[in-house]
Amino acid sequence: MTTTLQVQGMTCNHCKMAVTNALQELEGVNRVEVHLEKGTVDVDYDETKVSLDKLKEAIEEQGYDVK
Ligand SMILES: [Cu+2]
Predict the structure, then answer these.
(1) CB 43 within 8 A of CB 55
(2) Ligand 1 center to residue 48 CA distance, Å?
């Protein structure tokens, strides 16, 4: 399924890469797209392999807040 997360604190390409890489390391994540201007992250994932909480946790571990 695809979900859109509201992520606070992403300001530059480094943030974009940090969030993208953290999510893509998780098993079950198929596609990640960060929209810096909007402060959102689209994630296409397999919910039988990874939970929404895990996605949020991975982003928070990088130092960003997820709403
Ligand atoms: Cu940055």
Answers:
(1) yes
(2) 31
Q: How many angstroms does the Cα of residue 14 sit away from the middle of ligand 1?
A: 4
Taking only the tens place, the pLDDT of each residue in 1-57 is 999 999 999 999 999 999 999 999 999 999 999 999 999 999 999 999 999 999 999
Q: Which residues surround ligand 1, an ion (CB under 5 A)?
A: 11-12, 14-15
CA–centroid distance, residue 47 to ligand 1 (Å): 28
Among left, alpha and beta (phi > 0; psi -120 to 50; other), residue 63 is left
**Whole-structure pTM value:** 0.95
**What CATH number has the domain bearing residue 58?**
3.30.70.100
- Domain of residue 57: give its range: 2-66
